[in-house]
Amino acid sequence: MNLRADTGFYAVPVAQDGFAGVIAPGTAWDLVSRGEAVILDVRTVEERAYVGRVPGSLHVAWATGTAMNRNPHFVRQVAAQVPDKTARLLLICRSGKRSALAAEALTKAGWTRAFSVAEGFEGELDAAGQRGTADGWRFHGLPWHQD
């Protein structure tokens, strides 16, 4: 994926991924700060509590438990928190993989602006098997809280 410097959005066609696109972490925070988007954290309750979370983010787990079983109520639970299907939703997970799947599910359910936040909260694993050393929300120094 290539980041379009003029927009802060990654150039990912909707037809390819089945959702609105992928957005850079800094651009995501800018939109949220201006009240133009909502961050929806799709990680587990445990991840949010122990790893950290974006301030003001909503939460609906895409998958639950240590086995990461898909949450069968995900779309309904999102609808309860964000009934406006035209709202700009910026989904974030650990690395950007679950958030892409969740954005696709929401798009299929009628949301028109469901984006995945690139790199996720912690980013990809580095050569030493650790996250947060090369990319991710925290790596970029964006606001976050820890319980």
CATH topology of the domain at 18-117: Oxidized Rhodanese, domain 1
Per DSSP, the total helix count is 5
**CATH architectural label of the domain at 18-117:** 3-Layer(aba) Sandwich
Measured as a percent range, the helix fraction is: 25-40%
Distance between the termini: 33 Å
Number of strands: 8
Using the alpha-carbon principal axes, give the shape: globular
CATH superfamily of the domain at 18-117: Rhodanese-like domain
Order of helices and strands: EHEHEHEEEHEHE
Q: Return residue spans where pLDDT drops below 50 for at least 5 consecutive residues.
A: 11-16
Q: CATH first level of the domain at 18-117: which class?
A: Alpha Beta
Which strand order does the major sheet show? 1-2-8-7-3-4
Biggest beta sheet summary: 6 strands, mixed
List keywords for this structure.
147 residues, alpha/beta, Oxidized Rhodanese, domain 1, 6-stranded mixed sheet, two-stranded antiparallel ribbon, 27% helix
Chain-wise SSE layout:
Layout: E1 9-10, H1 14-17, E2 21-23, H2 25-33, E3 38-41, H3 45-51, E4 58-59, E5 63-64, E6 69-70, H4 74-81, E7 89-92, H5 97-108, E8 114-117
Parallel strand pairs: 2-8, 3-4, 3-7, 7-8
Antiparallel strand pairs: 1-2, 5-6
Protein model, in words:
- There is one protein chain.
- This protein is of the alpha/beta class and 147 residues long.
- The chain has a domain at 18-117: Rhodanese-like domain (Oxidized Rhodanese, domain 1).
- The chain contains 5 helices and 8 strands, in the order βαβαβαβββαβαβ.
- The strands form 2 sheets. It has a 6-stranded mixed β-sheet with strand order 1-2-8-7-3-4. A two-stranded antiparallel ribbon has the order 5-6.
- It is globular and about 40 Å long.
